[in-house]
Design brief:
Number of strands: 9
Number of helices: 27
Distance between the termini: 94 Å
Strand content: 5-15%
CATH class of the domain at 341-536: Alpha Beta
CATH superfamily of the domain at 341-536: Vaccinia Virus protein VP39
Length: 537
């Protein structure tokens, strides 16, 4: 008798599922309710009602049905996965994440749970953890396009746009004409320095999804990069009309007006962006920049302080800007989070921007100075301090038996590793890294690095500790002729007085072997005055 009853339940459920899969919603719902009435402890019927509610975007109702099914059979991954989707629709993202984690506790290789959790973590700003789950999803299912799309967006955010392009191409091979992936691909192409191609891709995404404010904002950013400011303004304005609460569209409108030196209009747009995204440090920072350009230091300082309250680590350098606006004393160095984020974002286009656009020549200047001080040296243990993408590595390698590098930016270190010239690379803070390698090096070199440090005492002491007896510390700085020890410039880089550099070097136990005026880069078609310095222990 019991076997017959089980068969009847199974048959009834199969009939209900067949109706659901055939698109007969009313029939599926009727059969599911009938099954619940006859056998309330059969979880499948509650699950089916949940699916029907989920398809109708009724998140709370779906969650109620899934909760009943989970209470009956708590260890079914499919139920927790469905519950996660229902909770996402309901806006309970944190609880949804817990259900995806429950799925992974039951099945550690569940691709969809990894992918959904990765997307939730991306939205929450937990980039590294999100990337790990997306990669796990792709490992479990190499054709998981959604995980690839999310990973591509995350890689772009991490300054690894070249890798993002590869991943997003794979996603689009699996799902051509996918607006979300096209949008992310366009942003990645912009960040690798291909704005024309990016514009074409984003225009295509917009044809498929014309009412998406985010895509219009991204297209505006590409047009702005291309100098097509009227087109950029048009797209940004349309984005704000599509969604008046879209902070990205207001930001792009502000940035475009800023590029056209329409500061009042820029400030007005940034005000709208702060209203739409009051927890975004970037919106407040940009508002502060506009107010400072309008010579409104008090209002600029207010905006910078708001940015700092939202982001105490200060990824945008609001503390530096606050000092420039006269709202705080000049900090003794740039925030680590600011420098890290600056170069993470810059990694894929760093070499092109510096060498081709800014005529960057610090490595050559340092090589010439070292040749004069050290002669035809070779076989040295060398540290490239603040190595960036490794632009100095080719000139340092000829001196080195061993060449190490360290940089705050992981994205920069990844690029430096691609050169294949370093024996060891590390992601880390410069002073701490040098202190931890006492007596390891014959030569420490810092090309265009100390411009992010005002007070040079800590780095000089750390470099002295890292050097062997008779070792050298070579570096470049930007120069100020003012009597002050150092000044914070409008581009949020420090310039140092020659006398200050000499005094601090001597205090740290160095002798100055060479100090000369030098130009290591240009800015706005003007040479940036600097110093090249070689110190000896």
């Amino acid at each position: 008798m019991q076997a017959q009853q089980n068969k009847t339940v199974a048959d009834s459920f199969a009939e209900a599922m067949q109706a659901y899969e055939g698109g007969k919603v009313a029939e599926a719902k009727r059969l599911a309710r009938k099954l619940i009435d006859s056998t309330p402890q059969f979880g499948g019927a509650h699950y089916l009602l949940g699916l029907l509610a989920l398809d109708a975007a009724q998140g709370k109702r779906a969650a109620e049905s899934f909760a009943r099914a989970i209470a009956i059979t708590p260890n079914q991954p499919v139920l927790h996965l469905a519950m996660g989707r229902a909770l996402e629709i309901s806006g309970d993202v944190a609880e949804a994440g817990l259900h995806y984690r429950t799925v992974l506790a039951i099945d550690a290789n569940h691709a969809e749970a990894h992918a959904r959790l990765g997307e939730l973590l991306r939205r929450a700003g937990k980039r590294d953890e999100a990337m790990a789950h997306c990669r796990a999803a792709i490992t479990a299912s190499p054709i998981h396009a959604e995980a690839m799309n999310t990973l591509g967006a995350l890689l772009t955010q991490a300054g690894r746009a070249s890798e993002a392009c590869q991943v997003l191409r794979q996603a689009l091979e699996l799902r051509p004409n996918w607006p979300s992936a096209l949008n992310n691909f366009g942003v990645a192409l912009r960040d690798v320095g291909q704005p024309e191609t990016a514009a074409t891709i984003l225009e295509g995404a917009l044809e498929l999804r014309p009412d998406h404010a985010g895509t219009r904002a991204n297209l505006a950013s590409v047009y702005r990069t291309l100098g097509r400011f009227d087109d950029a303004r048009t797209q940004a304005e349309r984005g704000t009309r599509v969604d008046s609460r879209n902070a990205d569209a207001w930001m792009e409108l502000g940035l475009t007006r800023q590029a056209q030196t329409h500061w009042e209009g820029a400030a007005a747009a940034f005000e709208r962006a702060t209203a739409a995204a009051p927890r975004s440090a970037r919106t407040w920072y940009c508002l502060g920049e506009a107010r400072r350009a309008m010579n409104e230091p008090d209002r600029a300082a207010y905006a910078y302080r708001k940015a700092l309250s939202v982001d105490p680590d200060d990824q945008h350098g609001a503390g530096l800007a606050l000092a420039l606006a006269g709202g705080a004393p000049t900090p003794d160095k740039a925030p680590e989070a600011y420098v890290r984020q600056l170069f993470d974002d810059y990694a894929d286009r760093f070499d092109h921007a510096l060498v081709d656009k800014l005529d960057y020549r610090a490595p050559k200047v340092l090589a010439a100075a070292l040749a004069r001080v050290l002669g035809p040296a070779q076989g040295l243990a060398v540290m490239d301090a603040g190595c960036g993408t490794g632009l100095a590595a080719p000139v340092l390698k000829s001196l080195a038996a061993r060449l190490d590098g360290v940089d705050l930016s992981q994205a920069m270190v990844v690029k430096a590793a691609e050169r294949g010239l370093y024996d060891d690379l590390a992601v880390g803070e410069l002073v701490g890294t040098l202190k931890g390698r006492a007596g390891n090096y014959d030569l420490v070199v810092a090309a265009d690095v100390l411009v992010y440090l005002g007070d040079l005492e800590p780095v000089l002491a750390a470099a002295h500790a890292a050097l062997k007896p008779g070792g050298s510390f070579a570096f470049t700085v930007e120069k100020t002729d003012a009597t002050a020890s150092y000044l914070l410039g409008p581009k949020q880089r420090y310039a140092h007085a020659a006398g200050y550099v000499t005094a601090r070097a001597n205090a740290a136990g160095f002798e100055v072997a060479l100090m000369e005026d030098a130009v290591t880069r240009r800015d706005g078609d003007q040479d940036v005055p600097g110093l090249v310095v070689v110190l000896r222990v």
